[in-house]
Amino acid sequence: MNKAETYTGGAKVIHWLMVVLIFTLFGLGWYMADLPKNTPERTWFFALHKSIGLTTALMAVVRLLWRMRYAPPALPETIELWKRRFATATHHLLYVMMFLQPVSGYISSSFSGYSTKIWGIPLPDWGWKDEALNQLFTDIHVASSIALLTLIVLHILGAIHHGINREDSVLRRMLPTKLQVKSVK
User: Fold this and answer.
1) Which residues, given as ranges, of the chain have pLDDT below 50?
2) Which terminus of the chain, N or C, has less C-beta within 10 A?
3) What pTM was estimated for this model as a whole?
4) 34-70 as b/e, with b when 16 or more CB fall inside 10 Å?
5) What domain range is 74 assigned to?
6) pLDDT at 183
């Protein structure tokens, strides 16, 4: 596989860092949602979730800027047109969700009556204490998390498909160099 067929090292680092951050956010979100309200433990986990979420949003901006500067390698022409279109649509929707998730969470927090901080640094509130608006943006945050998880599952299934079909090398171009397996023909 030549350099034109693979992602840049920077794109790989950003991708895998975001994988870790996003899965951490899902784990935290599921865990903290069931914690008793008005407890120090819940407050701590919510603050951690917000900080990691906002960090992930910043990484999404970096990722988008990187992608604008360094175009991803084209999908091989041997892949059916509908699969290429589906993959492109899935990637675009993943980007939308990587922005909708943190924005809806931040706005929800702004209407919760609790301030938002990123790693202890206070951020401006974009709203006021309003239970109805807080719930609306919380519902958007939860619904978009389900959409994001669905897209991630589709993305992983596509990666598995391409991992099994080694002739097209699509999976290998995002793997760290040391993990790449040579095609067997």
Assistant:
1) 183-185
2) C
3) 0.89
4) eeeeeeeeeeebbbebbbbbbbbbebbeebeebbeee
5) 3-179
6) 47
